[in-house]
Write a structure and sequence with these properties.
Length: 316
């Protein structure tokens, strides 16, 4: 702001610019005097200038791995006095944050499945958190989750019809390839192929599987309009409700008795890593009644013409 006033003070004057910016002219003159003569600056500003040199020196001398706590401890050992007292730890943290310095952090960097905005053009958000439908095949939402098994993690993809919270397509896979979410979509399309899909919206997150060319091309071939939610929006995930119910009522109940068993004990009848046994199938979650489907007439949601069998599908 001081620089802006300096650039235009010759044309408009300091008082008129400060009046438009709603600041006191004395504030500008005080800051301007501090830039001209650093000794007239506030004591805290002068102390910060001195501390920045010490912080930069300590950080560079220790391979640039020290964080605020270790830099502060080193300054304490050196006994650097500022304003008749030692340096405060919060002051070191504040200055390091302003200087863009940080210590080395343990752990690996997590790789997400979301693409930056500059790498790909995504479909628009056609839902905008309005997860309501007045008929079947009006709005589908898709998502996938992971399930811990005795043979490692597997991933379960869902395609859910918002009208009755019905699972119309699902697939289990040990990998995160596009094939397994595409197979869930193919199952949903085949299950509803006798019904018209005109005006159907498919909503998902920004995962690379749902933004891949194969997936978007299949949506276009079926005449389904793609929709992608906003980034980091916790309220933009109706599928999370179904996934949470699936894990709570199907996975955790079946594996609760086997969680504490030793490794040499017989295996539990739950997920084995190859097939979801018995009612562990996501189709069991589809057939149960939820809060919405329990009060809906069966005439409003006809039985599928191509419903999957009760035999769970295997991991492919």
């Amino acid at each position: 702001m001081v620089g802006f006033i300096n650039d235009h003070r010759g044309q408009y004057g300091v008082e008129s610019i400060c009046r438009m910016l709603r600041i006191a002219p004395s504030t500008y003159f005080r800051h301007h005097a501090g830039h001209v003569d650093p000794t007239r600056r506030a004591a805290r500003a002068q102390r910060d200038d001195e501390l920045r040199d010490h912080i930069q020196r300590v950080w560079d001398a220790n391979f640039q791995v020290y964080g605020p706590r270790k830099v502060w401890q080193q300054l304490q050992r050196e006994g650097i006095p500022v304003a008749r007292c030692t340096v405060a730890r919060c002051t070191v943290a504040r200055l390091m944050r302003a200087m863009g310095l940080q210590g080395a952090v343990r752990g690996r960097a997590w790789v997400t499945t979301m693409q930056p905005a500059s790498l790909a053009d995504r479909p628009t958000d056609l839902v905008e958190r309005n997860f309501t439908a007045t008929r079947p095949n009006q709005l589908w939402v898709s998502d996938f989750t992971y399930v811990a098994t005795w043979r490692g993690f597997v991933y379960v993809a869902f395609v859910i019809d918002v009208f009755a919270r019905r699972i119309v397509g699902w697939r289990v896979s040990p990998s995160l390839r596009t094939d397994f979410v595409l197979d869930a979509l193919e199952q949903a399309i085949y299950d509803r192929h006798s019904d018209t899909l005109t005006g159907l919206i498919h909503h998902s997150d920004r995962g690379t599987q749902y933004l891949s060319m194969r997936y978007t091309d299949r949506l276009a071939d079926a005449g389904i309009a793609p929709s992608v939610g906003s980034r980091g929006d916790s309220y933009d995930a109706l599928a999370e409700s179904v996934i949470g119910r699936f894990k709570t009522e199907v996975i955790q109940r079946r594996d609760r008795g086997a969680m504490g068993r030793p490794s040499n004990s017989p295996r539990s009848p739950g997920w084995t890593g190859s097939t979801p046994g018995g009612c562990s199938s996501p189709w069991a979650t589809c057939r149960r009644r939820n809060t919405k489907s329990a009060i809906m007439s069966r005439l409003r949601w006809p039985e599928s013409h191509n419903s999957p069998s009760e035999i769970p599908g295997t991991v492919h």
